[in-house]
Amino acid sequence: MIATVYKSTGSWYIVKNESGKVYNARIKGKFKIDGFTSTNPLAVGDVVNIENEEDIESTIITEIFPRKNYITRTSPHNKNQQHIIASNLDQSLLFATIKDPKTSTGFMDRFLVTSEAYQIPAIIVFNKIDLLDETDQLKLAHVKKVYEQIGYQIKAISLHTNEGMEEVQSVLQNKTTLLSGHSGVGKSTFINMLFPELELRTQDVSEWSGKGMHTTTFAEMFDLPIGGKVIDTPGIRELGLFAIDKYELAHYFPEMKALMHECQFNNCIHINEPSCAIKNAVNDNSIDYNRYVSYLNILDSIQQKNY
Fold it and tell me: Best exposed site among 148, 170, 194, 222 by fewest CB in 10 Å?
């Protein structure tokens, strides 16, 4: 039977077949994909073949079908290995907040680079807009302008007042969407509004750190009543990028990719090289300075990792 992985706990998997029947399944023996290594052989969203072993009444995953795409992070346990977050995605949706807790643009940019690298369209949703004062609203307007100008969809919502919810739900319809973001930004609250029967745990922002507390342990996929699926992921404090070369990085910043051909050198990494179109664009404000800082920080982390 063909089935889709809805939840992975590391050794056991919850899968659903094409008629909607749910099974607890496991992998039989070693499970490897040629040319691909990760800390988890299967991920939520994978399409697999399953067989029932009648003698011991268990369901076995015997085959994984080719992935349309996938998104990974550096393994939290081993920086030299990758961990697949989810596969076969139509889009990613990053929850962010201007305050309580504050989502840094650096974190957002790392997520966007990862989505670009795996060719997964990304949408940013700013929650808790009911908490924003006039200064905060100006910050949101500036961030919205910067990211919309380079081609990203930005949504602003309040899960507390329901403002903007219909618009976000409409972009989820008939799509498989990865939900991500720091803990505390409202991801679990959002899923509870979509699926009240789940009653996912939510936690307040930690007072001493200003950061959310982890409430989701494993990635899990849910079927939307309006059509489509959403994949909830553990709150990510740092999204470690895996297997991105320093010469490739600028390709994943759309505003830089558009200008790279104007640089004097083909292997320009846009730091100290003469006649660099990217640095010129930063200097004349065609490229947002904070986006360039994000680029430099990610580049630095890539170079440090390779030492």
Answer: 170
